[in-house]
Amino acid sequence: MQIYQSENLKVYDLVSRYGYLLDQDRLEEWVELFSAESSYKVISRENESLELPAAMIWCDNKHMIQDRIASYRNVNEYNLHWPRHIIGLPLIEKRNASGSMTVVSSYSLFQTDLEGQTRLFSTGRYEFEVLPQSNGFLLGHVLVVADTGLIQTLLAAPI
Amino acid sequence: MQIYQSENLKVYDLVSRYGYLLDQDRLEEWVELFSAESSYKVISRENESLELPAAMIWCDNKHMIQDRIASYRNVNEYNLHWPRHIIGLPLIEKRNASGSMTVVSSYSLFQTDLEGQTRLFSTGRYEFEVLPQSNGFLLGHVLVVADTGLIQTLLAAPI
Amino acid sequence: MQIYQSENLKVYDLVSRYGYLLDQDRLEEWVELFSAESSYKVISRENESLELPAAMIWCDNKHMIQDRIASYRNVNEYNLHWPRHIIGLPLIEKRNASGSMTVVSSYSLFQTDLEGQTRLFSTGRYEFEVLPQSNGFLLGHVLVVADTGLIQTLLAAPI
Questions:
Q1: β-sheet bridge partners, residue C105
Q2: Of residues A74 and B69, which shows the higher confidence score?
Q3: Residue B24 CB partners (closer than 8 Å, separation 6+)
Q4: DSSP one-letter code for C154
Q5: Separation CA B133–CA B35 (nearest Å)
Q6: Burial grade of B157 (CB within 10 A; 0-12, 13-18, 19 or more)
Q7: Which of A76, A102, C16, C102 gets the most CB atoms within 10 Å of its CB?
Q8: A151-155, C13-17, C140-144: which range is least confident on average?
């Protein structure tokens, strides 16, 4: 029971840190939430329901996630908007035999432009594979299922 | 203290599961979060503040909740939109002498149509009666107070 | 470990209560979440990024917070809208040597008018200084960084 409780709070810490680092534009630290064996994929809910393989973002390993952040930094010299993630309470949906957990969470993502106008950018859900480490938890495979139709672009910030 | 902590995390689990099952269209499993002695009522904040009795949805017992889901399934053969609940951190507002708890939580509910357009559908608050069971927690009387004016319809999905 | 867990849940309790009391228009109780040594400041993200000192609301001590609520009550005899805070999972970002904690949390704030129309009013982040007390936690210095441009007015409700 003790261990069970501790796990929940560590999952909450990881998920809230995920959103906080993105919103603070600390993308290089965000990447470090991912374990060496990880991936990051964004698909649309429509494609998920049709079982279509097309992804909006697909980074198959941690190096690809790092590369994507580096490209994003090079292209977007100045921030054109501020993101804001409101992430719902994470649900530990499954505890896998390997010791990893499947954690799901809803999100709403807003963007504010430099005039101070805020708009809804995307809603959807996260499916986080959470991997226990000797010192806290890290992310394994991360799937983002976006309800909202998004423009596919290399320039986009991670969700 | 140990028991107190465990209670909080079980409440969080129940509330996050509530939103997750609705968003995944797993409505039959959502009904099973309710105990045998339960109810589900949706009222507007305006009617609450005027102390008017009119409800938008009123299921006085679990059978009525089940019936409502069955009707909804019959009428809505295909999903015309995807819901997305972002539920704020639950607050255990009261621990009742009977052992039950009154838990309140804010929500924002978005809908995405088949074109991938997302709009805000409703905001409001939940008042959950949470009932300890031998194996986890279940819902007793659930009151949804919707800030947003809603069209009263038998076809509506639960909030 | 036991103490660590307990701290997290008390922080969650405090933050969820913060939003609940504001949304329920229980502003006088909201003030009592602040310790004797506290402050409440709202700034825009633009000013934060430019390191400009201008604040939208600046209450330098608890008496000023109390005064502001009293003024708000005098001017706004009737509620013209209902607020709704959806506060994301709090992140304990730092544990300070003094025993206090720095806790950050994203928010989305909606307003519903008397016609039942809901609109997004503001998104942003909280930076809460959380002070352990003999009986639970209280707020010290609270900084609200609003992404959304807001009209500066003495009549505004706290965020």
A1: C126
A2: B69
A3: none
A4: T
A5: 9
A6: middle
A7: C16
A8: A151-155
Q: Sign of torsion, CA C42 C46 C49 C52?
A: negative
Query: Smallest CA–CA separation between B83 and chain A, in Å?
Result: 9
**At A71, which helix (H) or strand (E)?**
helix A62-75
Q: Give how far A88 is from chain C: nearest CA, Å.
A: 6
- Category of B116 on φ-ψ map: left (φ > 0), alpha (ψ -120 to 50) or beta: left
CA distance A158 to A149: 15
Could you give the CA distance from residue B143 to residue B66 in angstroms, rounded to a whole number?
Answer: 17
**Token pair of C141 as six digits:** 């210095």
Cα–Cα distance for residue pair C108/C125, rounded to 1 Å = 9
Name the residue of chain C whose CA is nearest to B44's CA.
C116
Say how many Å lie between the first and final Cα of chain C, rounded: 33
Phi, psi of C29 (to 5 degrees): -75, -35
3-state secondary structure at position B152: coil
Cβ B147–C86 below 8 Å, yes or no? Answer: no
Residues of chain C with C-beta less than 8 angstroms from the C-beta of B106: 19-20, 23, 84-87
Query: Residue A1: which pLDDT band, with cuts at 50, 70 and 90?
Result: very low
Phi, psi of B19 (to 5 degrees): -70, -40
* Residues C158/C55, Cβ–Cβ less than 8 Å: no
Lookup: tokens for B126: 């939940």
Q: Which of A2-6, A83-87, A111-115 has the highest average model confidence (pLDDT)? A: A83-87
Question: By a Cβ cutoff of 8 Å, what residues of chain B touch chain C?
Answer: 1-2, 5, 8-9, 44-46, 86, 88-93, 104-108, 120, 122-125, 147-150
Q: How far apart are CA C7 and CA C5, in angstroms?
A: 5
Question: 3-class DSSP state for residue C97?
Answer: coil
Measure in Å the smallest separation between the Cα of A86 and chain C Cα atoms. Answer: 5
Side chain identity at residue B7, one-letter code: E
Among the partner residues A23, A114, A115, nearest to C106 by beta-carbon distance: A23
With H, G, I as helix, E, B as strand and everything else as coil, classify residue B123: strand
Question: What are the residues facing C57 on neighbouring strands?
Answer: C42
What 3-state class would DSSP assign to C52? coil
Residues of A within 8 A of B78 (CB-CB) are none
| Secondary structure letter of residue C148 according to DSSP | S
Instruction: Look up the pTM and report it.
Output: 0.94
Q: Say how many residues make up chain A.
A: 159
